[in-house]
Write a structure and sequence with these properties.
Number of helices: 4
Radius of gyration: 16 Å
CATH class: Alpha Beta
Number of domains: 1
Number of strands: 9
Length: 178
């Protein structure tokens, strides 16, 4: 289980358009938001990523980098980027499912074609949203077992404003006896 204020697992993926995303090399003043999504087959992911695309600038204004990552390959990831008309959002692809598990993501099996007629991969990860501090420690994390009921990016932007103004620490760090 990932713990706030503790180092997250390493994370590297190829990027659409070339290059590699390497979490340890990120340079955002206040960190990086990582949005793990299910893949091209998920219509809820497309809507969610459209909202994230709209907010990339707001995160950047606060010193936070943003990336969306899935286990889809390059072709399906490009199709998702095209579908949401991404101009600012970085996309990583080919997420290893073993790495997804290290991040605490749930893994699902295919149920065939989705409501939009796209075949699900044999195995894929369910959504997760993380804010990682510049020292690669976990600041915020949320994982889902289903595609529904995800954190709102507008609330995360607002929470960042509060955290910045009040030097608010990551919470949930206690691991002792209860």
């Amino acid at each position: 289980m990932l713990m706030p204020r503790q180092k997250t697992p390493n994370l590297t993926t190829p990027l659409l358009g070339g290059g590699t995303f390497d979490l340890s090399a990120e340079t955002g003043e206040r960190g990086t938001v990582i949005c793990f999504y299910r893949g091209l087959h998920c219509p809820i992911c497309a809507n969610y990523l459209k909202e994230l695309e709209k907010r990339v600038g707001e995160f950047a204004e606060r010193g936070v980098n943003v990336i969306a990552i899935s286990s889809d390959g390059e072709e399906r990831t490009q199709a998702m980027a095209d579908k949401i008309e991404a101009k600012n959002l970085r996309f990583g692809y080919d997420l290893s499912l073993s790495v997804a598990k290290e991040w605490g993501l749930y893994i699902s099996t295919s149920r065939g074609k989705t409501s939009i007629g796209i075949e699900e991969p044999t195995l894929f990860s369910e959504p997760g949203l993380f804010m990682v501090s510049p020292d690669q420690s976990l600041y915020y994390g949320s994982t889902q077992t289903m595609p529904f009921v995800r954190p709102h990016f507008s609330e995360l932007v607002g929470a960042l404003d509060f955290a910045i103004a009040n030097n608010y620490p990551a919470r949930g760090e206690y691991t002792g006896a209860v």
